[in-house]
Amino acid sequence: MRLMIVDDDKNVRQATQLVFEDTEYEVLPCANAEHARVAAQRKMFDIALVDLSLGEESGLDLIPELLEASPWMKIIVVTADGRIDTAVAAVRKGAREYLRKPLDAEDLRLSVDRMAEFRRLERRVEELETGTEGTSPESLFESRSATMQRAIDMASKVATSDAVVLITGESGTGKGVLARAIHQWSDRSDGPFGVVNCPALREELLSSELFGHVRGSFTGAVEDKVGKIAATDGGTLFLDEVGDIPVGIQPQVLRFLQDREYERVGDPAVRSADVRIVAATNHDLQQAVRDGSFRSDLFYRLNVIPIELPPLRERREDIPQLANLFLKFHAAKLGRKVADFTDAALRKLEQHDWPGNVRELQNSVARAVILAPTSRIGANVLLTGEAQSTLVPDAATPEELVTLEEMERRYIEHVLGRTDSIERAAEVLDIAPSTLWRRRRKYGI
């Protein structure tokens, strides 16, 4: 938690700092409004203690500027003015609490702690709303595979550091789940966890998503936006499918990795953020470097701690355990009284190659839980969900032979037309949303 103290009295600043010495708070004292403005532009703050009398300026005028820089900031007004109209004016400007001088250390500490708890709850809600909590049980990482166990052990060892982690592996192997686990295992677990899906946005919008923008900086920028880097200050940012970052903004990403500094689109002010980067890709980045589509210096900055996740076909010993985990999870989530698999069903699961890996297995089990007519899932129910049983409209007839790519294009259009979101369509197709975005771009859908 970052705490800003804005007071023109040096003794008050020092005394307030002492109250929060040896606590969880990173404290920055500011002697005047201008100092506070500059600090707020450079870094994100969670809480601010603002004196209303700041020399020739009023703390009331500073409040909206601080909130514009960090919309989530909790502002506590501190003043010797005890008039009710002053308190009301401060609240209308955006202050959350109002403390009178002289300050009692315990009251001050309780007020700041209360604001910190509000901020933690907001982060928790943000995670739940954006789905960053994930839906897979944590025991997904209990593996009998030596290869998988080595990857998990490596992730748990490096989680407590701030080193950049690059997770590689085929689509559906659990790269995003492992990235969230690294965050939860780290000292940043109380901080925010953000996700940027690199293939999903064109260059200009991806730059805005990462770094933020100011109003009017490009067509459609109707208001200022805080980017994911600023929003995850103090936490972890997951760059999903980092190999798809356009060449044009790779230097900006490299600069942030090197110096933790960046600029918003349309704003020359240099900002900084304390963000741990975890990236993932199913591309061969070294080949991309040779092809010229990925900068070599960015690759080396990302490839500090490489972790490769094996495909499910190379860890078949984990399939029964994973299937049962998914069964219990989805049965509870869907309210279905489905208890286990028949022996024939488990054999069928173990014999399948799972080109979509763990994600495909989870989706197949989820469909089977929905379709199972009894408390046991039989072999006849498995792998017969929507993605495999629905016929593609206008499919090729013997008289109209088309390529496999054309058939794929038609089926993707079919699924997109019958689902209400990209995420749902990707789930039906048993592919990652980032993969679906690439297919749409490839086929012009």
Task: Provide the β-strand percentage band.
Answer: 5-15%
Helicity level, as a percent range?
Answer: 40-55%
Our measurement of the CA-to-CA distance between the termini, rounded to an integer number of angstroms, reads 44 Å
The CATH topology of the largest domain comes to Rossmann fold
Give the number of DSSP strands.
Answer: 18
The CATH homology group name of the largest domain: P-loop containing nucleotide triphosphate hydrolases
The CATH architecture name of the largest domain reads 3-Layer(aba) Sandwich
State the secondary-structure class: alpha/beta
Low-confidence stretches: 131-137, 384-400
Total domain count: 3
CATH top level assignment of the largest domain:
Alpha Beta
Mean pLDDT equals 85
Q: How do the strands line up in the largest sheet?
A: 2-1-3-6-7
Features:
19 helices; alpha/beta; single chain; Rossmann fold; Helicase, Ruva Protein, domain 3; 3 domains; 5-stranded parallel β-sheet
Written account of the structure:
With 445 residues, the protein is α/β, with parallel strands linked by helices. The protein has 3 domains: 2-129, Rossmann fold, CATH 3.40.50.2300; 146-310, 3-Layer(aba) Sandwich (Rossmann fold); 313-384, Helicase, Ruva Protein, domain 3 (Orthogonal Bundle). The chain has helices spanning 10-19, 33-42, 59-69, 84-93, 105-130, 146-158, 175-185, 203-211, 228-231, 250-259, 285-291, 296-302, 319-334, 343-351, 357-371, 386-389, 404-416, 422-429, 433-443; strands at residues 2-6, 26-30, 47-51, 53-54, 57-58, 74-79, 97-100, 165-168, 193-197, 212-213, 225-226, 236-240, 261-262, 271-272, 276-281, 305-308, 340-341, 376-377. The protein has a 5-stranded parallel beta sheet, sandwiched between helices. It has a 5-stranded parallel beta sheet with strand order 9-12-15-8-16, with helices on both faces. Strands 4-5 form a two-stranded antiparallel sheet. A hairpin with a 2-residue loop joins strand 4 and strand 5. The radius of gyration is 26 Å and the shape is elongated. Mean pLDDT is 85; it is low at 131-137 and 384-400.
